[in-house]
Design a protein that fits this description.
single chain, Rna Polymerase Sigma Factor, Chain: A, Arc Repressor Mutant, subunit A, 2 domains, 9 helices
Length: about 220
């Protein structure tokens, strides 16, 4: 378990929500975030506490997806907000707060994951596209996944298939389908080109279909 620092004006620990991987979170609009972030940067700790409260589910959810350990994910999420508070001056007020703090959380989690592995086993998550082409994605509203995951057995199969994806594909699937970030927001969170986001989602779905063949589950 990693050590987590206290958040200014919030106490030594944040009350993290009880949630599961795959739970969806609604994100606040940029204008609302900008007002709170500006106040927080000027020393209003209650404003930052609101930012934490409004984004803690999405940050914790991403940390849980990456680290696969609830306690370690809580510590990582807390550390992400601590770092965000210390870096408020670098936050772009014209952008939503969630992708910015999610990127901080992602980078911290990846650092933790890299420390677990020997150098030869580390995975480069920001690899360039193989063919350099952008792939259009199907309309997600027409996908049958919502029907499939209603049953516990199917949900478990889908979770296992997602867990078997390469780390970069697994992460982009989580950000798009669970956190419901836009392509642009995912690109900002992961620090990759917009076209790469689209390509990785396209390939992740193709791999999910392959993994789920014979299980009567559609990605």
């Amino acid at each position: 378990m990693v050590a987590a620092h206290a958040l200014p004006g919030i106490g030594s620990r944040v009350s993290w929500p009880a949630m599961k991987q795959g739970e969806r979170v609604l994100l606040a609009p940029p204008s609302h975030d900008a007002s709170l972030a500006l106040s927080a940067a000027r020393g209003d700790r209650r404003a930052f506490a609101r930012l934490v409260d409004e984004n803690k589910r999405s940050v914790y959810g991403l940390c849980l997806r990456l680290l696969s350990d609830p306690e370690e994910a809580k510590d990582a999420a807390q550390e992400a907000f601590t770092r965000a508070y210390a870096s408020l001056e670098s936050y772009d007020l014209e952008q939503a707060f969630a992708p910015w703090v999610l990127r901080i959380a992602r980078n911290h989690c990846l650092d933790l994951l890299r420390r677990r592995l020997p150098a030869r086993a580390r995975v480069e998550l920001d690899a360039e596209e193989e063919d350099g082409r952008h792939h259009e994605l199907a309309d997600t509203t027409s996908e049958p996944a919502d029907e499939a995951i209603q049953k516990a057995q199917t949900r478990v199969a889908l979770e296992r298939a997602v867990a078997a994806l390469p780390p970069n594909y697994r992460e982009v699937v989580h950000l798009f389908h669970v956190e419901q970030l836009s392509y642009k927001e995912i690109a900002a969170t992961m620090g990759i080109p917009l076209g790469t986001v689209m390509t990785w989602l396209h390939r992740a779905r193709a791999q999910l279909r392959t993994l789920l063949e014979g299980q009567e589950v559609s990605p």
